[in-house]
Amino acid sequence: MKKVLHTLTAAAMLMAATTAQAEDKTLVIGTNNWAENIAVANMWKLILENRYDYDIELSNVSKNALYSGLANGDFDLSLEIWLPTTDARYLEPYKDQLEVHEGWYEGTGLGLVVPSYADIDTIPELKAHAEDYGYQGSPSILGIDSGSAIAGLTDEAIDAYGLPLEQVNSSGPAMMAALDAAYQQKEPIVVTLWSPHWAFAEYDLKYLEDPKNIYGDNETIYWFSRQNFSEDNPWLTRVLNDWQMDDDSLGGLMAEIEQAGDPVEGATTWIEDNQALVNEWLETGE
């Protein structure tokens, strides 16, 4: 029976490879600088190049450039759009020029985050404790790049709650370095973070409650593409539509990358350790 199953699996993989041969194998994946985005983009690049001889370019750009680039055909696909709330404003101008496909991760989180040792539990409490959350001499919320969706929502939160703090925008790694430094000294700090993210495995953190629901409810992460991608690449579209990850699989992938300090090395290790799951994704493309 094992031999029969092995033969069937091999036949399915051969058929998938033959089907993939008919598709355009030179693709550009648009990425942004979120930990899970970097993780899954490198994972799929390695899988498609090593198994099916694709030539994948990863192009890291701002959110605005990503959506306009997909609409213009500069990129073929991107693996992360949060809906129905977080990325809706980026999608709206291009909704008739892009294809939003199936979701691959459910139950996201997004908002203002503090270490669990912090004495506050809600965003409104920041108003009275703003002076405790200083950064370089000024009450601040540490964020990522100013063009990100979470940065825009944080500006809205500051206005809606009347917070006497300013958002300091930087890169994700710079924000995480500041969080690590404060955490090691048990100092107050408030940052913009999201789930899934490896930080929640590394540190004991909590989201501040958001009674005005500025950051929205839990969402789903979908993959999306330029127009007509599904017609040009039916096999890959089926594979990506059946791709699913959860906290264990995605968290493990991000943890491998963080530990390795390199997305290619970390993703390679994760793929080697999760062959059965990867094969399951690829076989469903038939």
TrEMBL record:
BP term (GO), one: glycine betaine transport
GO cellular component, one term: ATP-binding cassette (ABC) transporter complex
Tagged with keyword Cell membrane: yes
Organism of provenance: Chromohalobacter marismortui
Signal peptide: 1-22
PANTHER family in the record: GLYCINE BETAINE/PROLINE BETAINE TRANSPORT SYSTEM PERMEASE PROTEIN PROW, GLYCINE BETAINE_PROLINE BETAINE TRANSPORT SYSTEM PERMEASE PROTEIN PROW
Key words, A-Z: Cell membrane, Membrane, Signal, Transport
Gene Ontology terms, MF aspect: amine transmembrane transporter activity; carnitine transmembrane transporter activity
Locations listed in the record: Cell membrane
Protein name (database record): Glycine betaine/proline transport system substrate-binding protein
Domain ABC-type glycine betaine transport system substrate-binding: 25-272
